[in-house]
Design brief:
This protein is an alpha/beta fold and 236 residues long. The structure holds manganese (II) ion.
Length: 236
Amino acid sequence: MRVAALYDIHGNLPALEAVLAELALDPPDAIVVGGDILWGPYQAECIGLLRDVGAQFIAGNCERMVLHGDTEADQWCREQLDAELLADVSLWQLTIELDIAGLGRVLFCHATPGSDEEIITRLTPDAAVAEAFAGTVADVVVCGHTHVQVDRAVPGALRLVNVGSVGMPCEGTPGAFWALIDGGIELRRTEYAVEPALARLLEPGFPSVEDVFFEQVRGEVTAESASEYFESLRGA
Ligand SMILES: [Mn+2]
């Protein structure tokens, strides 16, 4: 079974189009969308493209923010979606589990199985990671949320993979980041044209679009700085 894991798309349609064009050349058996497809300029368009290819969706903290939040951006995002789509999003589960030959039980969640916003980074000590996943029965956990790719074995626990972000990566280089899971786990990067994408992302009127997208889409936020920032928030 070949599974593409696409996380943290954030309504970045040009980035998603690039990944889907690559996947169309050799379609996987399943596509798991790991939360935070919402909270960005082209939410409904991204959901539409992924529904067309039969993707399965789980919810992240941004789905919760778009459904229930009260910032200007939360409200703008909610107003872009019709009642039927919002009702569908409210039904998305927090986890999906798949049995994948060569890996075993693979649990997909946005941040951790028990929280859509718990911070785990490449800098988080093993003991804290083991504690966050205590009680999780899986061989591999596939997560996102912190927008930096990670593949680490947690001693005595499990293999933790963060597939990175399609739409708002913090990797020090532009592109859409995701993973192909096929017995092994391949962390992937798909290139797309940055400046035309930024021009398109401005069009719908998503609030603070320049603050949210420009540095990350241009690849100006490094994995090191993002990991240090997120790690400073952990447990705060
Ligand atoms: Mn996110």
